[in-house]
Write a structure and sequence with these properties.
The protein is of the alpha/beta class. It has a domain of about 180 residues: Rossmann fold, CATH 3.40.50. It is about 40% helix and about 15% strand. The chain is built from nine helices and six strands. A six-stranded parallel sheet has the order 2-1-3-4-5-6, with helices on both faces. α3 runs antiparallel to α6 and α4 runs antiparallel to α5.
Length: about 250
């Protein structure tokens, strides 16, 4: 199993979920370039001007570790990076590299478009990106609690996410944010040809319920699971429920 973290996060975010799968899977954790303890010297703006650059990295990791039949678990933007990684592996002649895909809070397009509801207007995204440009630390402190969701009993979760955002290189964070929030991967969903689980959180402002159901409808034969967990980071706020949902999908 390969776990891919979302924007502003790192591999540490999986610490409450990943160990439960080590009993029967080889578990691989990594940091996207620019996040966590990754080597910032590896960041090439041209490569990472598209989510496909991040997808290429996942395929490269799998090649390097000689992995096959991988269960790829992608949170938030990494759910779409996962979709692109499947395409990348197929284009390289290794279509059996991935055996299943788990999407945690996926959103193929954040900007509303006609009848499609992504959760944000163009003005919303423009304001979000402008705020990130002008004050990275302030943006992090404001957005982290929103993304985490309302968990007054666990204020440390929002604080952890804030600190994670703040540790990300500001220049890389700005470009990754643009690539993430301006992406449109709706047309790629129909190409997913492996068993897929769509995990939908409750009261998720980043990936609303209507978006998760859209992804479920667009990915052939996918499984949809509605979590009671609120917010956008269930593997931190409700790891037991998240683990149980993934386990049920893998054994079902």
């Amino acid at each position: 199993m390969v776990f891919a973290h979302g924007f502003g996060c790192d591999q540490v975010m999986w610490r409450f979920v990943a160990p439960d799968f080590e009993v029967d899977h080889r578990v691989v954790l990594f940091d996207h370039v620019g996040a966590g303890r990754s080597d910032l010297r590896a960041y090439v703006p041209e490569k990472y001007a598209s989510l496909r650059g991040y997808a290429q990295d996942i395929v490269e990791i799998c090649h390097e570790l000689e992995l096959s039949d991988v269960v790829l678990v992608g949170h938030s933007v990494s759910a779409m990076i996962g979709v692109l990684a499947l395409q990348e592996a197929a284009s390289q002649g290794t279509p059996k590299m991935f055996g299943a895909l788990v999407m945690v809070g996926p959103n193929p397009r954040y900007v509303d478009d006609g009848d499609y509801v992504g959760g944000f207007s163009r003005a919303d995204i423009a304001g979000l990106l402008d705020a990130l440009d002008s004050n990275h630390l302030g943006w992090s402190a404001k957005m982290a609690p929103v993304i985490m969701g309302n968990h007054p009993e666990h204020p440390e979760l929002a604080e952890e996410l804030t600190n994670s955002f703040c540790r990300t290189d500001p220049d890389i964070a700005r470009q990754f944010a643009r690539v993430t929030f301006l992406s449109d991967n709706r047309a790629d969903l129909a190409d997913v040809a492996v068993p897929t689980l769509v995990l939908q959180c409750s009261e998720d402002v980043i990936a609303p319920d209507v978006v998760g159901r859209y992804v479920h409808g667009a990915v052939p034969g996918s499984t949809f699971t509605q979590l009671a967990a609120t917010g956008h980071v269930p593997h931190l706020s409700s790891p037991e429920e998240t683990t149980a949902a993934i386990r049920a999908f893998l054994t079902g």
